[in-house]
Amino acid sequence: MYLTKEEEKTLEGEYGETLRKAMEILVALGEIYGADSLIPVRSAQIAGVSYKTIGDAGLEWISDLKGKARIPAILNPAGMDMMRWQEMGIEADFAKKQQDIIAAYESLGIRTKCTCTPYYLEGFDVGYGDHLAWSESSAVCYANSVIGARTNREGGPSALSAALVGKTANYGYHLEELREPVISVTVGFELSGADYGALGYVAGKVIGNRVPIFYLKGQPSEDEMKSLGAALAASGAVALYHVEGITPDAIRYKYERPDENLTIEKEQILEVYETGKSGGSSLDTDIITLGCPHCSPAELENIAGLLAGKQVSKEMWVCTSREVAGRYPDLVKDIEKSGAKVVCDTCMVVSPATNNYQCMMVNSGKALAYVPSMCGVASRYGSIEECIREAVHDN
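Structure (tokenized):
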């Protein structure tokens, strides 16, 4: 693996211990995966933020680092709404540890905007062909697939290292030849809304970590492709997918259909909607959550419209980034008139507040895959409309 003289000096510790550790991580990854060099990256998105997931060991490691990020860098969702954590039922001890984690990242020059949808943030622009060092699974999938940027699914330490060094190892999805699809997925019926999350939930289990190309009827919106990619990444380990005639790489390269094909039947999608139901009834659901990945402005507008004039009778969270919520205060106000909470900085997957519930209804294939395994909470699936009907069921 070729290193410039400056990179060698960094690795030898001439610019301090923190940068030496960061370079050591990047070089080790590069050597493992056969990278020829390090390449500059435009931005970093860093996982390993919730105290629930990194604990005291992670906090100690981050707190020992010194220096400043050389590129724009932001954080993955934390374990709580940083301003309204008490309303979520978060204990004070957890809140203190979470605040310490955010402060440690901030001292390194990391922007403390905690979101899995960094592409919605102003001043954090991402374009086609940009090399990135992102780590959250759905953000990686969206960047690679929908935007056409180039990033591997970095671990938290390697994404932080890339932020401090300004570079990452040149392997994996940074290389054009490794971005070509190796399996096709054929869907011969129309999809809409949460159907795309269900599709990703089903297909990801078969695809694993390979690159698929989808042949669909109709054209999915960006929000629908966000849902598809998030579910593919959670039920499988997909970091890049293509949609014939729609996603930028598929348009540019006009990929040939791979020999291996997966055909999805309508019954498989319908089965996802039955997940978690008990005897055909969903009345045991005690929390409804939307926004995994974090809601876009269009999704907030849709939710606000569906909740207009209604009151929820069950706990309901609508998760989004604090910046998006701040740009659309009227939508937040309209949603919260119903009794639902617009929750920022966090989500149902990484917050310990989720543990206070027994059964969660979600409109996200990602949450459907992760909530039972990471939170120990039963989950069931529905469209945004079905989730809201469940939330206002008794009114």
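The first strand starts at residue 38 and ends at 40. DSSP finds 15 helices and 15 strands in the chain.
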